[in-house]
């Protein structure tokens, strides 16, 4: 199995099998996407955009179309249950000039799926296909799809779905190796992803997603199933270095050392700085609370710093805490912060 395979995804060509940052709500905003690009991601996805929110001119939806210069190629992903709304939203998203427009048929959360959007569309395959056909016809930007194996254990119909999505013109298909009913529980099943990739009827690139958490799981996925790209989601949270680690392993067969405490502090601080620039200080400091501790997960005696980080109200306070973290000997730390 070679890890150096040139592949075309729509109008974009990757010289190596791309490592792709998955779309994650409240995570993959422009600052985090830029960090992941700088640390080895080849292709990034935004937080998904509600088609209904976008056409209602909702600020929260519109701001998700922001694209930083350093993050291309980038996909803007939309979701919704109504075909006319999805068509209109796709045309609006195209005005932001993404490299790809992605349709989310994979989000399993109740508030999305119960309305027939996201993975909820797996209960109405004809509508899924018709929605995709109309979106593809409405825009000039390559359209891609991200979905799951099926609705539940008794309805793993991704092989048929993949053929039908290809037939209506999508450029690339990403498959998460779980059903909707599994949510994010259990182990991702890559066997059906492999069946789609090796189906002689399929001629579009297939990206595999699910449980890629380190260089070894990435290598196994490529060697066993031959996919054209790997999408990495939860394993990147607090660990944007994962892309660099996997690429280095593919290129050399060797592992690079994990980031030092000082490097973690530097990247965490840069993440906050970019967030402040994009969202403003108050929002950035509050929303970054979900990220601070992931950067320093597993550090002995870290709890007092964690409590300070998640209660800080100013960027300067957080910067000073991160600087303290970078020089603290946690093995000898006695649990109090002056």
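^ Assign residues to that structure.
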């Amino acid at each position: 199995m070679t890890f150096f395979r040139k592949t075309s995804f729509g109008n974009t060509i990757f010289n190596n099998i791309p490592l792709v940052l998955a779309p994650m709500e409240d995570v993959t905003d422009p600052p985090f996407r830029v960090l992941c690009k700088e640390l080895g991601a080849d292709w990034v996805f935004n937080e998904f955009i509600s088609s209904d929110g976008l056409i209602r001119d909702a600020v929260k939806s519109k701001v998700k179309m922001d694209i930083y210069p350093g993050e291309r190629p980038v996909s803007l992903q939309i979701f919704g249950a109504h075909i006319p709304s999805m068509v209109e939203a796709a045309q609006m998203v195209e005005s932001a000039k993404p490299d790809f427009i992605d349709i989310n048929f994979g989000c399993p959360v109740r508030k999305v799926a119960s309305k027939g959007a996201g993975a909820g569309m797996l209960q109405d395959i004809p509508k899924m296909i018709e929605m995709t056909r109309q979106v593809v016809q409405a825009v000039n930007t390559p359209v891609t799809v991200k979905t799951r194996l099926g609705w539940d254990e008794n309805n793993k119909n991704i092989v048929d779905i993949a053929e039908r999505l290809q037939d209506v013109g999508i450029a690339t298909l990403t498959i998460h190796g779980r059903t909707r009913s599994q949510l994010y529980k259990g182990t991702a099943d890559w066997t059906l992803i492999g069946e789609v990739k090796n189906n002689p009827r399929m001629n579009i690139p297939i990206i595999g997603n699910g449980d890629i958490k380190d260089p070894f799981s990435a290598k196994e996925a490529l060697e066993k199933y031959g996919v054209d790209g790997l999408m990495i989601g939860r394993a990147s949270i607090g660990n944007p270095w994962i892309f660099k680690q996997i690429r280095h392993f593919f290129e050399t067969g060797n592992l690079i050392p994990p980031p030092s405490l000082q490097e973690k502090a530097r990247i965490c601080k840069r993440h906050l700085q970019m967030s402040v620039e994009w969202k403003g200080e108050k929002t950035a400091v509050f929303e970054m609370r979900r990220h601070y501790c992931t950067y320093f997960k597993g550090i002995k005696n870290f709890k007092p710093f964690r409590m300070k980080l998640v209660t800080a109200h100013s960027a300067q306070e957080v910067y000073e805490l991160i600087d303290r973290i970078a020089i603290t000997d946690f093995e000898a730390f006695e649990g109090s912060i002056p």
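The chain has a mean pLDDT of 94.
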